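As a warm-up, study this chain.
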Amino acid sequence: MKHLFLLLFLSTSLMAQAPSPKASLGIDFFHGTWEEVQAKAAEEDKFIMVDGFTTWCGPCRKMSSITFKDERVGRFFNKHFINYKLDMEKGEGPSFRKKYNIRGYPTVIFFASTASEKGRFSGYRNPLQFLVEGRKIVADKAKITELTTEYEAGNRRPEFLYEYLQMLQYGGKKSAHVAKEYLRVVPKEEYRSAENMELTFDALGDINSPFYELYDADRAFYEEAYGKENFHMYLRDIGVSHFLEAEKNGDEALFQRSEALLQSLEFKGKDLLLFKIKMRYTDKNEDWETYRQTAIDYLENNVVRDVAMLNNIAWNFLTNVKSKDRYEYAEKWARKSTQLKSEYHNNDTLAHALYELDRKEEAKVVALKAIELGRKARTNYAGTTELLKKIEAK
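Now compare it with the structure written out below.
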């Protein structure tokens, strides 16, 4: 069975300056020893964020010059964390690196106020991505449970609803029902306040939230406030997450909304991303006529260098698409795949396509090559052996 190509959706190295509606203030880092950091976190009942860096690390410098200087990042992390930079090659750094098994830079580790590790990541994160990482830590399950109990008991005070919404959104929980309650008690003239803009911004992950409708009706305002380029990248990631949810649940309406959101944005590689999600969705739902037309429209008008993707589409044309021209297209795309990188799977696909086109001698040559490549790669090539028997029997 042919392996499916993987979608390379999300980048962790976005280059543009982060969205921020105000002048950059950034993170306030604590200066002292690791022991003093722990004591301060315990005293203030805050989480700890440790930036494990080196002076020669490019992504580390980028985090410091862009992400850590962002105003929204600073406001969030200064409120919830004791923030600490630690050079992994100086002072306490080497022992810390060994104790916490740090192998790449930057590595950011989050700790509870008790100094127990809560999570970590390595590599660059832009401001929006870094906020997402921090919010995962702050969204304490016990706190959400406590607030949920209070909400169910009837608390509808605006300040309570605001806190509850924030915590739900930090934790990636559905919050549309609470958002509706909040917007009922907040005057419309306050929707554009800094606090409510942040609620709207954070709610965009829930396409059913009424805050999403607020953004959609006032899109230009948010693009100007947060910076269009990175804001669109942020929405791109949200659109992809909606697609993955739609794919998992077979939700056609959500798929269409995610596709429409992505289509409305401006970002590098948009057409290819839209093509990939359409192909993946129609493949899973066995909508082979839409799959066929989508493949032809894109592959015949764009240069594609994804070896596995070309081979996977060619194989689906052979085995699932029902049209008179399916073998011609399968042969064309499988051959392109082999020209980019000759492997067992794409040679096997090409051999099958040539056989269906009644080009038996060519099919035999390619099948033998596929078997040779399969042996070298220690891949199961039984399917090609069966094809070769059929070719030689005629």
